[in-house]
Recover the amino acids of this structure.
């Protein structure tokens, strides 16, 4: 790790006795009259947030759907994946694609999940992004466009993750709404509540109900073996689907990649190899290799088998029956079993592939089903279980509360654990030894470059709050976004850097960096607290200023060896670091206590209005903090 | 640029301060925490030992070497040992307790996984039900497997929680939550479905609570001595209740609430403040809905409505509520401008309409379900009787788009509203932020949510009585409350203080129940209602079979005004409703309701007991300040025919 030794300015050092671990702070600051504490300034963050697209609020342009004319509709919500497609013509900076992870009936916009796309340009004077007006080939004009799935490849359900090709910005959207039969799509009890279409519909019937219509679906596709195939309606869900963000229409469902509970994927630099993440328990690890670079209609599909010499086992993707029952086929050839693989990314500097294995509290039933069907447990689960004194990952006592990030090395073809979630202890540690970061159930992942160094952006999506996934005494489940420097060897949760320039209490999903390295585009999915407009909506936002960050600026300080109290506010992370672990109370300018932090060596000022505060430590040191 | 930033950072390193602290208080406070924590650790060890014994005895019972009575005794002992640690175990890991240790004896769906992953019930409650059933010997191996899993979970919880370091605020918050948990759940028999040990368990839990609080005696003596005697008196009063009243049916819950629970909440809040212990809103974590500063369970501010409505109480708040009220009463929101929200939610009827199911837009057919009261409706995790919508400000979307209700869309509505200068001004005042929103789906929805969020009635005679505000309460209503919270088991689903399905003490989750409501009133020949309820909410996780016919537990506040009752409005009177429950719901009536969550045993309530409960329900009426309709609605100068819009009451 690169370290930069910061030289502190030394003031008179007071020696304070540490009395104990916990303390009481008065509700108003007790400070002798006339005492002037030293003051410290926290400059504005180099990262600035800009809202681009508000779900449930902005207006999207629609195509003629279910007999409705092309018109406008209010955008869908539950933003998940975000993709970026650079514009090689130079007209725009590029196109942003946003997934909607929902099942929603509005016949003007097309049923099911879906996607919204828009073009952006960078304003040269402000550096901000501007959503550019466009006119598409189908005649639609506007700023935001609903991707047409209904008239192209059939409806999609709960569009969650996806793929942005690093080569040319091609976009795939993943369908997560895994359905095993038509009855779960429409049991005859769904009504079409929308009045916006006047098509005949009758409660208790199953036709003419958009995404809930259970008529058979006849595939029209350029993928061999599938064109003209008629499938049950539910079988046309759960594919990776390529879309054209420039024209806001779907291109094809990727029938040759298997029907799976897809979450994410990545395309390697050869423009042939695709790695795919499956959100399920058991989950196989899947690869597709195209015959010709850039043509994903022809190629071979494989599942990973860790315990074999040839680690990738082919599953014939020209046989529709095999692709429709992919999980069964994968287990039958002895595929390695994972526990909910979500998003996948690739570090261009090394070619290594990283994927989040989000974990689940009770994976044993799923594992057992997979093993009974022929699958083989991934080594890291078996090792982890043995390390806990269990018989293996099928032991009824096996739990996977926190999940982890996995690394796949395409050269050695080995999967290893990059960073374990947690930290997990047999018994919880004393607070003094408790790490600042707690990392659980990673979901979104993206490799980005900051200051010439590769980092991973890691997004949590907590499965629950038990066993320390949330600090004691919290009711809200709050998911954090972290940065991890990929040059760290054997990283632990202590090496994670919290990215605080995101709305508090909203789940952040999806992230993609603009090609100029300046702006990270992210989605805020479902706010779980009472935030102000527009943060109470699903939204797509940009965080500008990544080109201003430095590797050292993201690190905590290196302290001058001194017994005196030192304090360091980091503008990039909005954290105030101290050279000891202690209790801290924060008082506002008029001396009212506003925050208390216990047993910390750093604390977060995000969410506090700019202004003057007083910091008082357990030992009594008082410092003035000016938050700008 | 990079170097500039770095040198800037280096200059920020500072060294601070002087000490202005009372070291003696600090030392006392730390001693208290160490003491408090070691008491908990000892209790954890006892609980683990009880679980060891429970497993051992069950194994011996399965092989025929122990009697059922011994297993039952070991179960009761393990439960009591749990009650001794419940205060902190629940505080530090409520989700693990619910999932593995003391959750409802019902299957659930793992909401963190895609698809339907059904979780079978585990832990003390299902064992309580099974070991105290008539025939636990039918499947001893299954019971042993459950005990074994529980044993494992208790071990891992004990390991995990033995290492947690107490903070003062943890103790204060844990005590507050436990005081509420014991009153709202424990004393109602919520978690003792089979053994009926509710009173001894509550006694144990309260003993521990007071024991932990009394560890603060030295610090209180130092800083605020008058609270020491207050605390000791309260502890003695609580103990006296449990000494004198040991029978579940006879326990005087109303007096316990007024003499122990409420004074304790009040004392806790003062104690926490005077000792300088921070409240949840001063921590870096987002607060929940429970107001830890409130000194009474029935205080109007005990729950934060804006937590549920997810609306920010900022500068535009009052204007937003005013605007929301206009919109609520304005037929401009419906396709033909002849219906408003108030068409089905009459303020005089506590915002219901007196119909089994509301009149549809066409004027002759009906909506899917009975119109529920809006008063107190804000206090919920999900909205609609089938729980389909998690956000109050998106609830209106369903009404606007439903062809049987407003049959329109937000485009049309926003374009209409923009025609009115008064509405334009009102929206500008309600949403003053330059970021917007102006007239749009979200601003219309948020204004309505803000208004509905103010429809709370905490000033019923019962509320004012338990707050000791000079209100009297009739003896039959007092007896009725005790029955509601005790023998009649109403309070095990209609939780205090909202008397709805929002689960204490965190109040972050809303329950639904399968009652087996019939579609006719013939108790001899009942026909099951076919409404699939929550199962058809269109939320993927709700498509589990046990959600078929499951409906949200709504508040019983204002029940006197909200007839007819149930999701299909099948019962005209509260007497009929009580009769239905008294018979054990749909199963009790003899219908085949496979996933009924209401116990099918009769409640054995005598007629005078039913009339006492009705008297209590009648004491919960409060529509104060909510019944006035706006005198005038905004005008549309450019669309004079719109000013003739009128929504007759059906």
């Amino acid at each position: 790790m690169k370290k930069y030794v910061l030289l502190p300015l030394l003031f008179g050092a007071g020696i304070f006795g540490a009395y104990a671990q916990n303390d009481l702070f008065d509700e108003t600051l007790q400070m002798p009259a006339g005492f002037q504490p030293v003051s410290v300034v926290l400059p504005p963050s180099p990262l600035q947030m800009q809202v681009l697209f508000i779900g449930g609020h902005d207006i999207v342009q629609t195509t003629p759907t279910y007999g409705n004319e092309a018109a406008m509709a209010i955008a869908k919500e539950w933003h998940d994946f975000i993709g970026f497609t650079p514009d090689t013509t130079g007209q725009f900076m590029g196109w942003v694609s946003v997934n909607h992870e929902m099942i929603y009936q509005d016949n003007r916009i097309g049923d099911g999940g879906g996607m919204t796309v828009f073009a952006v340009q960078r304003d040269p004077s402000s550096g901000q992004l501007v959503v550019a007006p466009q006119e598409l080939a189908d005649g639609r004009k506007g700023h935001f466009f609903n991707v047409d799935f209904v008239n192209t490849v059939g409806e999609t359900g709960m569009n969650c993750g996806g793929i942005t090709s690093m080569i040319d910005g091609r976009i795939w959207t993943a369908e997560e709404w895994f359905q095993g039969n038509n009855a779960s799509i429409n049991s005859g009890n769904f009504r079409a509540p929308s009045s916006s279409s006047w098509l005949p519909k009758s409660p208790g019937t199953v036709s003419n109900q958009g995404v809930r219509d259970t008529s058979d679906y006849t595939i029209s596709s350029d993928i061999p073996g599938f064109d003209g195939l008629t499938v049950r309606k539910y079988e046309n869900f759960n594919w990776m689907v390529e879309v054209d963000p420039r024209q806001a229409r779907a291109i094809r469902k990727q029938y040759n990649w298997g029907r799976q509970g897809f979450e994410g994927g990545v395309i390697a630099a050869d423009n042939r190899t695709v790695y795919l993440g499956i959100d399920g328990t058991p989950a196989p690890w899947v690869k597709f290799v195209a015959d010709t670079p850039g043509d994903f209609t022809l190629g071979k599909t494989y599942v990973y088998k860790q315990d074999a010499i040839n680690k990738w086992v082919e599953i014939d993707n020209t046989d529709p029956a095999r692709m429709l029952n992919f999980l069964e086929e994968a287990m039958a050839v002895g595929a390695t079993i994972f526990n909910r693989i979500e998003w996948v990314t690739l570090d261009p500097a090394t070619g290594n592939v990283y994927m989040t294995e989000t974990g689940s509290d009770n994976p044993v039933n799923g594992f057992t089903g997979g093993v009974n069907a022929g699958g083989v447990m991934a080594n890291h689960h078996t090792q982890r279980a043995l390390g806990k004194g269990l018989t293996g990952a099928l032991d009824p006592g096996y739990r996977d509360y926190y999940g982890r990030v996995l690394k796949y090395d395409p050269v050695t073809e080995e999967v290893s654990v990059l960073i374990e979630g947690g930290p997990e202890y047999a018994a919880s540690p004393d607070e003094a030894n408790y790490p600042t970061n707690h990392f659980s159930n990673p979901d979104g992942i993206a490799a980005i470059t900051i200051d010439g160094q590769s980092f991973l952006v890691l997004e949590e999506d907590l499965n629950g709050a038990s066993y320390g996934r949330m600090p004691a005494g919290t009711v809200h489940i709050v998911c954090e976004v972290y940065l991890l420097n990929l040059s760290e060897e054997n990283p632990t949760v202590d090496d994670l850097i919290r990215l605080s320039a995101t709305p508090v209490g909203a789940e952040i999903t999806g992230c993609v960096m603009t090609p100029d390295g300046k702006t990270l585009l992210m989605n805020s999915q479902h706010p779980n607290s009472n935030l102000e407009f527009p943060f109470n909506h699903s939204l797509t936002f940009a965080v500008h200023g990544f080109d201003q960050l430095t590797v050292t600026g993201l690190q905590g300080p290196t302290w001058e060896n001194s017994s005196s109290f030192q304090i360091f506010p980091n503008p990039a992370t909005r954290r105030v670091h101290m050279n000891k672990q202690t209790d801290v109370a924060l008082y506002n300018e008029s001396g009212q206590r506003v925050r208390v932090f216990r047993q910390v060596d750093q604390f977060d000022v995000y969410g506090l209005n700019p202004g003057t505060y007083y910091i008082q430590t357990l030992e009594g040191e008082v410092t003035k903090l000016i938050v700008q | 640029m990079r170097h500039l930033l770095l040198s800037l950072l280096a200059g920020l390193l500072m060294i601070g301060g002087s000490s202005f602290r009372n070291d003696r208080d600090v030392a006392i406070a730390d001693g208290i925490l160490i003491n408090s924590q070691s008491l908990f650790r000892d209790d954890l060890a006892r609980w683990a030992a009880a679980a060891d014994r429970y497993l051992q005895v069950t194994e011996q019972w399965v092989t025929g070497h122990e009697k059922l009575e011994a297993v039952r005794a070991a179960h009761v002992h393990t439960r009591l040992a749990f009650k001794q640690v419940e205060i902190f175990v629940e505080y530090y890991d409520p989700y693990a307790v619910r999932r593995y240790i003391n959750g409802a004896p019902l299957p659930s769906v793992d909401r963190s996984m895609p698809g339907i992953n059904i979780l079978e019930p585990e832990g003390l409650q299902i064992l309580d039900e099974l070991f105290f059933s008539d025939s636990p010997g039918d499947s001893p191996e299954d019971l042993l497997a459950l005990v074994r899993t529980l044993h494992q979970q208790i071990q891992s919880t004990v390991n995990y929680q033995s290492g947690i370091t107490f903070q003062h605020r943890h103790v204060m918050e844990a005590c507050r939550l436990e005081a509420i948990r014991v009153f709202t759940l424990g004393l109602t028999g919520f978690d003792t479905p089979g053994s009926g040990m509710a009173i001894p368990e509550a006694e144990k839990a309260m003993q521990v609570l007071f024991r932990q609080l009394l560890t603060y005696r030295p610090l209180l003596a130092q800083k605020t001595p008058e609270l020491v005697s207050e605390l000791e008196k309260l502890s003695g009063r609580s103990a006296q209740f449990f000494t004198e009243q040991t029978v579940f049916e006879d326990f005087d819950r109303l007096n316990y609430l007024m003499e122990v629970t409420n004074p304790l909440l009040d004392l806790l809040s003062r104690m926490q403040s005077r000792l300088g212990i921070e409240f949840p809103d001063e921590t870096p974590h987002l607060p929940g809905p429970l107001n830890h500063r409130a000194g009474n369970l029935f205080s109007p501010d005990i729950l934060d409505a804006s937590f549920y409505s997810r609306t920010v109480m900022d500068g535009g708040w009052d204007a937003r509520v005013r605007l929301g009220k206009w919109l609520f009463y304005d037929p401009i929101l419906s396709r033909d401008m002849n219906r408003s929200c108030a068409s089905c939610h009459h303020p005089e009827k506590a915002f219901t309409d007196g119909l089994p199911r509301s009149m549809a837009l066409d004027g002759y057919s009906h909506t899917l379900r009975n119109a529920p009261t809006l008063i107190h409706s804000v206090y919920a995790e999900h909205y609609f009787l089938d729980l389909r919508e998690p956000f109050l400000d998106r609830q209106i979307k369903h009404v606007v788009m439903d062809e049987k209700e407003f049959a329109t869309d937000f485009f049309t509505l926003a374009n209409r509203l923009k025609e009115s200068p008064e509405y334009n001004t009102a929206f500008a005042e309600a949403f003053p932020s330059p970021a917007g929103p102006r007239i749009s789906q979200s601003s219309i929805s948020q204004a309505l949510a803000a208004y509905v969020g103010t429809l709370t009635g905490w000033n019923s005679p019962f509320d004012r009585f338990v707050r000791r505000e000079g209100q009297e309460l009739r003896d039959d209503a007092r007896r009725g409350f005790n029955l509601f919270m005790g023998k009649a088991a109403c309070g095990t689903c209609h939780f205090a203080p909202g008397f709805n399905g929002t689960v204490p003490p965190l109040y972050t989750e809303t329950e639904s129940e399968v009652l087996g409501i019939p579609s006719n009133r013939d108790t001899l020949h009942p026909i099951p209602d076919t409404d699939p309820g929550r199962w058809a909410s269109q939320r993927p996780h709700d498509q589990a079979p046990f959600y078929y016919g499951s409906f949200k537990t709504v508040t019983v506040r204002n029940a006197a005004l909200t007839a007819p009752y149930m999701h299909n409005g099948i019962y005209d009177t509260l007497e009929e409703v009580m009769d239905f429950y008294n018979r054990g719901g749909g199963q009790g009536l003899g219908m085949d309701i496979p996933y009924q969550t209401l116990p099918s045993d009769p409640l054995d309530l005598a007629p005078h007991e039913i009339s006492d409960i009705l008297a209590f329900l009648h004491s919960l009426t409060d529509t104060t300040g909510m019944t006035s309709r706006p005198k005038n609605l905004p005008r549309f100068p450019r669309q004079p025919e719109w000013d003739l819009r009128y929504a007759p009451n059906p």
Summary: Chain B has four domains: 23-166, 169-194+202-296, 306-455, 461-618. The first strand of chain B starts at residue 108 and ends at 109. The beta strands of chain B are 108-109, 118-119, 512-514, 550-552. Residues 306-455 of chain B form a domain with the Cytochrome Bc1 Complex; Chain D, domain 2 fold (CATH 1.10.760.10).
